[in-house]
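Handoff note, outgoing to incoming analyst
You'll be picking up this chain. Sequence as last confirmed:
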Amino acid sequence: MSTEDNYQRVYTGSDVNVQYLQELFQKAGISCRVRNDFDSGLRAGFGGGLPGQVQLFAVTSHLDVAQKIVAATFKEDYSDEEDQGL
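Most recent structure output, in case you need it:
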């Protein structure tokens, strides 16, 4: 089993938001990984990904807690109206 299989994406957003969530995850004892395709492409000498779209992955054993942290931190992104399709 690869390391990537042990992590699932919990958030995609700005670098600042991802860094903030990383700090919250660290305080909660949740292991996480960051994937920034745009930054990686620039370092390799070619473009790739979208600027400002950084992905945050949390270890699957703490996925429920990680998702709750994301939802509580960015409530406007998880409003009841969106859940109901309004």
